[in-house]
Amino acid sequence: MTPQTISEWHHSPDFQAALNALQMDQLEAARTALQALARDAARTLSDVMHNADSHETRRRAALDILEMTGLAADTTRFAWGIGSQTPQAVEKDARRRNREASLLDELVGL
Fold first, then answer.
1. Res. 25: pLDDT tops 90
2. In the chain, what are the domain boundaries?
3. Cα distance between residue 103 and residue 100, in whole Å
């Protein structure tokens, strides 16, 4: 394999799409692992929200947990600019964003 071959691959749309898909798979796996901890985080968050002295502390704790688990409305840092690769994935992303917005509204209202 030569550097020229690798360079040609990097300029190939098929290669780029496959690489993006692999990167997205890895990021989704990491996000899923974090989301599996969301229940414990929610319990901790609940404790902070119920025991913190200020409303701002309670609100910030909720937002911090949502951001760390990828459930916040702005999760671009978790995908590092990698876009969806299929129309089905675009639709899935839209459904996820709607769920995230609803969850955020529900948690902030606690």
1. yes
2. 3-108
3. 5
